[in-house]
Amino acid sequence: MKILVIGASGRVGKILTQKLLDNKHEVIGTTRQDEVLFENENYTQISLDLLGELEDMEATIPNGIDAFYFVAGSRAKNLLALDLHGAVKTMKIAEHKKVKQYIMLSSVFSLETQKWKEEGFNELKDYYIAKHYADEWLVRNTKLNYTLLQPSALTESKGTGKIEVNIQHPGENPIEDVASTLVEVLNQKTAYKKVITMHSGATPIQKAIQNLPL
Ligand SMILES: NC(=O)c1ccc[n+]([C@@H]2O[C@H](COP(=O)([O-])OP(=O)(O)OC[C@H]3O[C@@H](n4cnc5c(N)ncnc54)[C@H](OP(=O)(O)O)[C@@H]3O)[C@@H](O)[C@H]2O)c1
């Protein structure tokens, strides 16, 4: 498949892109850096600024892409313009370009505002608000075949390859497991049009995704 990774230089984006390349996909990564991130014949790179005008962004992104991943973020520096508006612009572009699958990396319980009373959410409230409305746009206002993956806190620890999905309380996830789950939801019918919360667990990633109800 031909896949766009928006945010290929990020902590998640780098691992995700490598895994997609390992699976022989053709990957177009986005970063504003000059350095080419991967030496691989199936990898190309574009400079995409999520703060740019929609028309410019659309002209920068090639046609004929099968799937978009959105794994970018502003690290709370530009929540409205990037995590919200930047994300929504990429959804609009995906619709215009008739992309078959749009996979968004979000954050646990972004759509369940009643859960924001739990410990740890208050400090991240502005981030959650931006993610909430970006995610709502994806689910309610697009016709995209989306998967909205919502991990808990990301850690640098080694991946276990095992997760729990549709969780009740937040936890932690090694970044590698989040990247593996993002790869797994590609082309998995059980992940189409789904919001999937996750943290580390006891179920192998492939099984956890395949077991989601259709
Ligand atoms: N931290 C957590 O615990 C946690 C938990 C759950 C979910 N998440 C989500 O996971 C996402 C990815 O996390 P991460 O740690 O991998 O992020 P990261 O390392 O901070 O990477 C951010 C990415 O966003 C891109 N970016 C930043 N500003 C941009 C702009 N103006 N235009 C285009 N691209 C831009 C960066 O690309 P450049 O090379 O162009 O700078 C980079 O690829 C977060 O944004 C968050 O929404 C995080």
How would you characterize the overall build of this protein?
The protein has 214 residues and is α/β, with parallel strands linked by helices. The protein has a single domain (2-210), classed as Rossmann fold (3-Layer(aba) Sandwich), CATH 3.40.50.720. The protein has helices at 11-22, 54-60, 79-96, 125-141, 175-185, 205-210; strands at 2-6, 26-30, 43-46, 67-70, 101-105, 146-151, 153-155, 162-165, 172-174, 194-200, 203-204. The chain has a 9-stranded mixed beta sheet with strand order 3-2-1-4-5-6-10-8-11, sandwiched between helices. The protein has a two-stranded parallel ribbon with strand order 7-9. Helix 1 crosses helix 5 and helix 3 (79-96) packs parallel to helix 4 (125-141). It is globular. It starts with a strand and ends with a helix. 44% of the residues are buried. The model has no long low-confidence stretch (mean pLDDT 97). NADP nicotinamide-adenine-dinucleotide phosphate is lined by residues 7, 9-13, 31-33, 48-51, 71-75, 82, 105, 107, 151, 153-154.
Summarize the structure.
The chain contains six helices and eleven strands. It is an alpha/beta fold and 214 residues long. It is globular and about 40 Å long.
Mean pLDDT across the residues is: 97
Overall CATH architecture: 3-Layer(aba) Sandwich
Percentage of β-strand residues: 15-25%
> Could you describe the largest sheet, including whether it forms a barrel?
9 strands, mixed
Based on secondary structure, the structural category is: alpha/beta
Into which percent range does the helicity of residues fall? 25-40%
Write out the distinct hetero groups bound to the structure.
Answer: NADP nicotinamide-adenine-dinucleotide phosphate
The fourth-level CATH homologous superfamily is: NAD(P)-binding Rossmann-like Domain
Highest-level CATH class: Alpha Beta
Strand order of the largest sheet: 3-2-1-4-5-6-10-8-11
Helix and strand element order = EHEEHEHEHEEEEHEEH
Write down the domain tally: 1
Counting DSSP H or I runs of 4 or more residues, the number of helices is 6
